[in-house]
Amino acid sequence: MKVILHRIEYALLRLGLWWIDGVSAQRAARMAAVCGSIWYRLDASRRRTAQANIRRSGLCSDEAAVRETARRSFRHFGILAVESLKADTVFNETNWRDGVDWDIDPATQQLLDDPAAGLILVSGHFGNWELAARLLAYAKPVVAVARRMNNPLTDRALAARRDHQRLTLTPKRDANLARLLQVVKQGRILALLADQHARAGGMMIDFFGSPASTYTSPAMLHLVTGAPICFGYCLRLGPMRYAIRLDPPFVHRPTGRREVDKRIILEYLNTRLESAIRLAPDQYLWAHRRWR
Amino acid sequence: MPCWSCGTPSIPIPKEPDMSDDRNVIMTRLRDLMRRSGPMDFDWDTVQANSPIAALGFDSLTIMDLIYDIQQEFGVEFEAVDLAGLETAGALADFLLERQPAS
């Protein structure tokens, strides 16, 4: 049964990709927004999760605003999926700086320009993180740790689309520590999304004022390699128009108190992510159960 | 006691530093660090030089805790990536022994 469902899902994906490839980016994004709205209406469980998370964050003053932000968040997710898939038809080696408002701290820019300097780039499920990794890969090779899809057929098809000479995806489950350490040593960008619920292995760090189990790997990778850690995000401004912001490099020298060091770094990262989300709450993936 | 062949008083000869003693000291320190960062239900006293690190129950997060603790405890400079490739507790002890400052 599972195999049949996977094949149906895969067939629908191929059909969707064929359609996306045949229309303009604007038209595809409009249709994706409609699909996002339909998803919001149909998926009651995720809708409730998104609304509860937005309420808990305290970003909206009333219930109408909570519902509207949740609905727009679903629409945004549809748009980001389509625009990420269209990225190759819009951006290439020569024009990747166009259509993007780059705001990179000078010290971070130096790290990007230095082929020997590794960098740990941390972001969240905000704006268009997929596109950010693709575009930054033109500046410096990127290895992104990503979760594998449950359906191996769709996973392979999408991985092939995302494949990029300078962007490598490493499935989270297979992320070998030595390989991740090599990425930084070889002067590449190790890109991590650090805002998912980390279960029992995480550290409880405040996110919008409520403790959330947070992955400690960005902090530990920074502490053991000494490679600068940098928070960044990619805000959507309009159809295929984005602003990419990269903070100054953050460096925290180990003090010998491991758990304290981790906490300092993770609190910094969560605070920076909160600030980014406050700019455009509807561009955050609220449907994920961050607080459990 | 005088020398048995010439009768002159003997001078105590300093003992050569014993590499295996140093290695044992490092192994003991490593066991303590592993106890701190590894799984709680593991009997760390059973860790021997030939124990494979992969069999000690560390996951990708706790192994980074161990690397951090080793860096702090031994205070020697090394690339974290060099540690990640070592296979046994003894290889880890030798790695650290080679990097110990000469006393």
Secondary structure class of chain A reads alpha/beta
Beta-strand content estimate of chain A: 15-25%
Compute the average pLDDT of chain A. 93
Q: Give the terminus-to-terminus CA distance of chain A.
A: 31 Å
Oligomer: heterodimer
Question: Which sequence of SSEs, written as H and E, runs from N to C of chain B?
Answer: HHHH
Shape of chain A from CA axes? globular
User: Helicity level of chain A, as a percent range?
Assistant: 40-55%
Please summarize the sheet with the most strands of chain A.
7 strands, mixed
Write the layout of secondary structure elements.
The complex is a heterodimer of chains A (292) and B (103).
Chain A: H1 2-22, H2 25-42, H3 44-57, H4 63-90, E1 100-104, H5 106-113, E2 119-123, H6 129-139, E3 142-146, H7 152-162, E4 167-171, H8 177-185, E5 189-193, E6 203-207, E7 210-214, H9 217-225, E8 229-238, E9 241-246, H10 258-279
Parallel strand pairs in A: 1-9, 2-5, 2-8, 3-4, 3-5
Antiparallel strand pairs in A: 6-7, 8-9
Chain B: H1 19-37, H2 60-74, H3 80-84, H4 89-98
Keywords, please?
heterodimer, A: 292 residues, alpha/beta, 7-stranded mixed beta sheet, two-stranded antiparallel ribbon, 10 helices, 9 strands, 52% helix, B: 103 residues, mainly alpha, 4 helices, globular, disordered N terminus
Structure description:
The complex is a heterodimer of chains A (292) and B (103). Chain A has 292 residues and is α/β, with parallel strands linked by helices. Chain A has helices at 2-22, 25-42, 44-57, 63-90, 106-113, 129-139, 152-162, 177-185, 217-225, 258-279; strands spanning 100-104, 119-123, 142-146, 167-171, 189-193, 203-207, 210-214, 229-238, 241-246. In chain A, the strands form two sheets. A seven-stranded mixed β-sheet of chain A has the order 1-9-8-2-5-3-4, with helices on both faces. In chain A, strands 6-7 form a two-stranded antiparallel ribbon. The two termini of chain A are 31 Å apart. Chain B has four helices and no strands. Chain B is mainly α. The interface between A and B is medium-sized, with 19 and 16 residues.
